[in-house]
Design goal:
Strand order of the largest sheet: 4-5-6-8-7-12-13-11-10-9
InterPro entries: ADP-glucose_phosphorylase, GalP_UDPtransf1, GalP_Utransf_N, HIT-like_sf
CATH superfamily: HIT-like
Organism: Amycolatopsis dendrobii
Radius of gyration: 19 Å
CATH architecture: 2-Layer Sandwich
Distance between the termini: 54 Å
Bound molecules: zinc ion
Shape: globular
Structural class: alpha+beta
Keywords: Carbohydrate metabolism, Nucleotidyltransferase, Transferase
GO molecular function, one term: zinc ion binding
Number of strands: 13
Protein name: Galactose-1-phosphate uridylyltransferase
Number of domains: 1
Largest sheet: 10 strands, antiparallel
CATH class: Alpha Beta
């Protein structure tokens, strides 16, 4: 039985599935705060966070700031507080505000690389997505090991590149753009699409037109296009499904693979509309109840025509 001590908890190796699990008893002490009352992230007298590690200034105040996570999963686990405003939301943000959040993710990702095999960047929205504090925030967590799905994705992409000389992500985009029925919106930088075989109803992947391994190295123009696309799709999802819970996750090259020609980054939006039940648990196979072609058509219909090309 293999265990690794890890920041007040343990990483345990499941030798049957060849995968890690995390034992983090301290996480159960997280406070649950939904209103402005008692919110530790709202600026003012009630503000209560560990000392700030990074901020994007805005006049005398801040636009986005990073602080260590008080209920950390690792010694590299930060919260990105996305706005000083408690009711701010990524779906109603300006493009500049959304781009500032993405820039914070890039900055903190680069900062965490030394000593981390993999860095998770994610945003939870709504109680069903695991949120404990309602104030808009995202999280960056560095892991000392590479997860099994990340290792497998890397291996599949490497094999495809070795066989064809092309990136798997670019080949997938070529097929999706010529088919068209699963495209939600696109511009010259970013394509948002419903994956052919996804893991959840209304799942959307945001992919750069030109495949690249490292999300943190994406240029400003790509980050702004991603911000525009994200807020448009999130607004469409909110209107279509009355503000559903979701997780937003950055898939990017693990540490050491930032320049790998076969690797590619994407940002994935996974709505939490259904609870994984017995079949999923028994087989590991997700059950999706809304066809991606239907979901894409409904979201597309709610997005301003100027964003759809
Ligand atoms: Zn707040």
């Amino acid at each position: 039985m293999t265990t690794r001590r890890w920041h007040g908890g343990q990483l345990r190796w499941n030798s049957a599935s060849q995968a890690w699990s995390i034992l983090a008893p301290g996480r159960k002490d997280r406070p649950h705060v939904s209103g402005r009352e008692g919110c530790p992230f709202c600026p003012g007298p009630g503000e209560d966070t560990p000392p700030e590690t990074w901020r994007l200034p805005d006049g005398d105040g801040w636009l986005v700031r990073a602080v260590p996570n008080r209920y950390a999963l690792s010694d590299r686990h930060e919260i990105v507080i996305e706005s000083p405003h408690h009711d701010w939301d990524l779906s109603t943000a300006t493009v500049a505000e959304a781009a500032a959040v993405l820039s914070a993710w890039q900055h903190r990702h680069r900062e965490f690389r030394s000593g981390a095999a993999q860095i998770a960047v994610f945003r939870n929205h709504g109680p069903a997505a695991g949120i404990s504090l309602a104030h808009p925030h995202s999280q960056i967590a560095g892991l000392p090991v590479l997860s099994e799905p990340a290792r497998r994705n890397l291996e599949i992409a490497r094999e495809h590149h070795a066989l064809t000389g092309r990136s798997l992500a670019e080949d997938m985009l070529t097929v999706e753009l010529s088919t068209g029925s699963r495209i939600v919106c696109s511009d010259e930088e970013i394509v948002a699409l419903s994956p052919f075989a996804g893991t959840a109803s209304y799942e959307v992947w945001f992919m750069p037109r030109t495949s690249a391994a490292d999300f943190a190295a994406a240029p400003r123009s790509t980050v702004e296009a991603l911000a525009r696309s994200l807020r448009a799709v999130l607004a469409a999802l909110r209107a279509e499904l009355s503000d559903p819970a979701y997780n937003l996750v950055v898939h990017t090259a693990p540490t050491g693979y930032e320049d790998a020609p076969f690797a590619s980054w994407s940002v994935r939006l996974v709505p939490r509309l259904e609870i994984a039940a017995g079949l999923e648990l028994a087989t590991g196979i997700p059950v999706v109840t809304v066809a991606p072609e239907t979901a894409a058509a409904r979201l597309r219909a709610r997005i301003a025509p100027s964003l759809v090309s």
